[in-house]
Amino acid sequence: MKKILIIEDEKPVRTGIKDLLEIKNYSVFEAESGAEGVKLAKENMPDLIICDIKMPNMDGYEVLKQLNKNETLSSIPFIFLTAKTEMTDLRYGMNLGADDYIIKPFMAADLFKAIEVRLSKNEKAKKGTLKQQTAVDETEPKKNIDEHLFVTEGNKPQFVKIHDIECITAFNEYTNVYLNNSKKVIIRKSLREWENILPDTAFIRIHRSTIINFEHVERVEKFYTRSYMVYLKNIKQPFVISQRYLSKLKKKLFF
Predict the structure, then answer these.
(1) Which domains does the chain have, with CATH numbers?
(2) Are the beta carbons of 28 and 2 closer than 8 angstroms?
(3) Label partner for 82 (CA 20 to 30 A): which of 37, 178, 193, 210?
(4) Is 129 exposed, middle or buried (0-12, 13-18, 19+ CB in 10 A)?
(5) Quick check: pTM over 0.70?
(6) Which of the 8 DSSP states describes residue 17?
């Protein structure tokens, strides 16, 4: 039985969601405040968290920040509840690492679909990570920044110097590898696999779907409240730095 934590200060909304989820045989925990929600998350380790954004004292953004400080809790699928009037602020929440959002008022079918999709993706990610970790540990040691990687894109083999990789972004089981000559290579390799072979002295994850080579960082700019954007030397489009990874990047770049 999957465990779901609901963090919502309005009792009618909280109770309504709880009743719906129990029909689907989920084990449900309730919290009427952000602080109580963080406490229950630590005590019960839910499989998914649904959290309202606008709450007194500790809002949904702060809840997510608190959870992101804990490595185990930060991996729990997190869905924001938001009113239509809050849509302009939603980008900030997604940049913090939220997985999805549901707009109030919502249909039961939309709620169930969002939950099922996130739980399914999380299960696949856990299984995939375990398989990838085992394979990488057995076959690919950490690389040096000056080494070359032999990669194959389609049927075209080539050597890529690790130092020339500016950034790597994920989509499904593939990754886009952006090089400093403005070329892009598509490779069937997960971000987890890349993390296990790339040198920590140059590469760092800035988002759940993005790894950058911080030796190629041109500048970092404030984006929204406490969010930042990072610009790389040969890529026009900046990348959002997720709040979850911000402190690590600050230590590397001293901004």
Answers:
(1) 3-132 (3.40.50.2300), 148-253 (2.40.50.1020)
(2) no
(3) 210
(4) middle
(5) no
(6) H
